[in-house]
């Protein structure tokens, strides 16, 4: 668990790791639906892979494909421990009108 702030009520909350919820989790103070920001998840993964793959290729003399597999596995194992605390939280809109199947049609 890591301490972050709810984007709606600004209270500090202990956000669960990505493995502990499927779609969203609920803020204990304002009961808003929250999730980790997908943009942050992708940018941190891309940065980690871009930074450490060349290091393994040059320092250890690894093949690029083996280096990428090692770096991606390392990211997968280190993300819950070191990286997830930096992900921003995102407020989700779960109202029935925001769902595409419930949108009114203009005939």
The chain-level structural class is: alpha+beta
Strand content: 15-25%
Distance between the termini: 49 Å
Number of strands: 5
- Rg (C-alpha, Å): 19 Å
**Nearest-integer average pLDDT:** 86
Q: How would you spell out the order of helices and strands?
A: EEEEHHE
Coarse morphology: elongated
Extract low-pLDDT stretches.
Answer: none
Number of helices: 2
Q: Report the helical percentage.
A: 25-40%
Strand order of the largest sheet: 3-4-5
Labels describing this entry:
single chain, 107 residues, alpha+beta, 2 helices
Description:
- The protein is α+β, with helices and mostly antiparallel strands and 107 residues long.
- It is 39% helix and 16% strand.
- A hairpin with a 6-residue loop joins strand 1 (2-5) and strand 2 (12-15).
- The radius of gyration is 19 Å and the shape is elongated.
């Amino acid at each position: 668990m890591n301490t972050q702030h709810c984007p709606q009520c600004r209270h500090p909350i202990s956000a669960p790791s990505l493995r502990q919820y499927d779609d969203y989790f609920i803020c204990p103070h304002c009961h808003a639906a929250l999730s980790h920001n997908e943009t942050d998840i992708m940018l941190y993964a891309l940065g980690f892979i871009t930074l450490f793959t060349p290091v393994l290729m040059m320092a250890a003399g690894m093949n690029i494909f083996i280096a990428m597999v090692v770096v991606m596995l390392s990211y997968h194992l280190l993300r819950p421990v070191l990286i997830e605390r930096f992900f921003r939280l995102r407020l989700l809109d779960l109202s029935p009108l925001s769902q595409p199947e419930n949108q009114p049609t203009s005939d």
